[in-house]
Amino acid sequence: HGSGPGASAWSNFSQNIGPLSQEFRVIALDSPGWGKSDPVDPTKEPFSDAVAESIVLLMDELGLEKAALVGNSGGGGAAIQVAALWPERVSHLITMGSGIPAPGSLIFSPAGMTEGINILLQTYNDPSPENFRRLVSVMVFDPSFVTDELCAMRSQAALSNPDHLANWGKRFTPGALPGLSFGALTDKLAAFTGPSLFIHGRDDRVVQMEMTLRLVSLVQNSAAHIFNRCGHWCQIEHARAFNALVSSFLRTHSG
User: Fold this and answer.
1) Helix (H, G, I), strand (E, B), or coil: what is residue 84?
2) Are 180 and 234 within 8 A, CB to CB?
3) Which positions are catalytic?
4) How many C-beta atoms surround the C-beta of residue 22 within 10 A?
5) What is the C-alpha to C-alpha distance for residues 212 and 77, in angstroms, rounded to an integer?
6) Which of 16, 42, 57, 133 shows a CA-CA span of 20 to 30 A to 251?
7) 212 HSE (CA, 13 A, CB side)
8) Longest dimension (CA), the chain
9) How confident is the model at residue 4 (pLDDT cuts 50, 70, 90)?
10) Is the pTM of this model over 0.90?
11) Which of 35, 47, 32 shows the shortest CA–CA distance to 10?
12) Where does residue 58 fall: left (phi above 0), alpha (psi -120 to 50 degrees), or beta otherwise?
């Protein structure tokens, strides 16, 4: 699942877990710092590193030598980091609305933070019902997906875990520990040879589509798929097509 207050595996993947589990074993986790998982204090351990490492630790606990990693947004970033640091554990790499950011101050775009990232940060600082509706609205192209149920789910999940909200804010303080550097990540990811599929919504207002294009230019055995009339949540707005795309990709590259 992606970042943002109230994010969870179920809120991101409720339309995908059932259909894909007809063919594959599907495991959906709440990352550390979200949902019902433990909090992460970024002044004690790097936040992004902890999220990536938790995936490998879960695989160890379940006795899984390899897995196909499917991640949306920040979850895709975690999957990318696992592929870079533990390539032998990743059979397939699939991301949606993720990518390789540019180094330095222009990490998201030449104009700085995108509209969606700004709203995400505002909602962490002020987790009001109004801000949660703005957050869900900026994630999608089609406003019909902005339901009262989804807004309430995100709001309740965030407010029930105040430590998660507070720890997210600490990531941007002088005491936060740095994670894997941009240069180290790209160098290691360029050596990853597993089959990779990078999916993006053409109308994404959170993470620009160009970040996926940068990613597919770096990873050797990769392809990109762009959904038109689609925002940041490809797996929600185009659930049936997304499920068929992932299923076909896994079956085609089954070696």
Assistant:
1) helix
2) no
3) 232
4) 9
5) 11
6) 57
7) 29
8) 48
9) very high
10) yes
11) 35
12) alpha
